[in-house]
């Protein structure tokens, strides 16, 4: 059994403790059980990048003719370089096609002061 030390917002912690007590009672292990259940649900809902990447195929076409194919863009670029193919006029297609889902909203990164 592993041990994790985490930091969460105070409001989130209170809500978590309250919900764990409601669902599992105020006994020992209730909080661990609630967190483990949440982590399992999160793991099940997020795609495994390795499995997703394995299923992708990138194909390079030039003038309607298949020139090369590979499982990653880096591998495809290497193959095209070795063949001496110029990237101009090459169309790259990924299968399965990327989803049409788009993310909206501002994305920021935390800025840290340089000292």
Can you give a write-up of this model?
- The chain is an alpha+beta fold and 115 residues long.
- It folds into two domains: 10-46, no CATH class; 51-95, no CATH class.
- It is built from four helices and three strands.
- The chain has helices at 10-24, 30-45, 49-55, 73-83, and strands spanning 57-62, 65-70, 90-95.
- A three-stranded antiparallel β-sheet has the order 2-1-3, covered by helices on one side.
- Helix 1 crosses helix 2 (30-45).
- The protein is elongated, with a radius of gyration of 24 Å.
Distance between the termini: 40 Å
Percentage of residues in strands: 15-25%
Q: Indicate the radius of gyration in whole angstroms.
A: 24 Å
Spatial ordering of strands, largest sheet: 2-1-3
Q: Which outline best applies?
A: elongated
| Low confidence ranges | none
SSE topology string: HHHEEHE
Structural class: alpha+beta
Tell me the major beta sheet: 3 strands, antiparallel
Total helix count? Answer: 4
| Number of structural units classed as domains | 2
What's the total count of β strands? 3
Instruction: Give the oligomer, counting copies of the same chain as homo and different chains as hetero.
Output: single chain
């Amino acid at each position: 059994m592993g041990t994790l030390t985490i930091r969460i917002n105070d409001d989130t912690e209170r809500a978590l403790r309250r919900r764990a007590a409601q669902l599992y009672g105020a006994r020992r292990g209730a909080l661990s059980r609630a967190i483990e259940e949440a982590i399992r649900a999160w793991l099940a809902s997020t795609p495994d990048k390795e499995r997703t990447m394995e299923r992708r195929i990138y194909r390079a076409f030039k003038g309607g003719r298949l020139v090369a194919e590979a499982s990653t863009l880096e591998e495809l670029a290497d193959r095209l370089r070795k063949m001496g193919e110029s990237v101009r006029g090459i169309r790259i297609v990924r299968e399965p096609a990327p989803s049409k889902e788009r993310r909206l909203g501002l994305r920021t990164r935390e800025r840290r002061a340089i000292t």
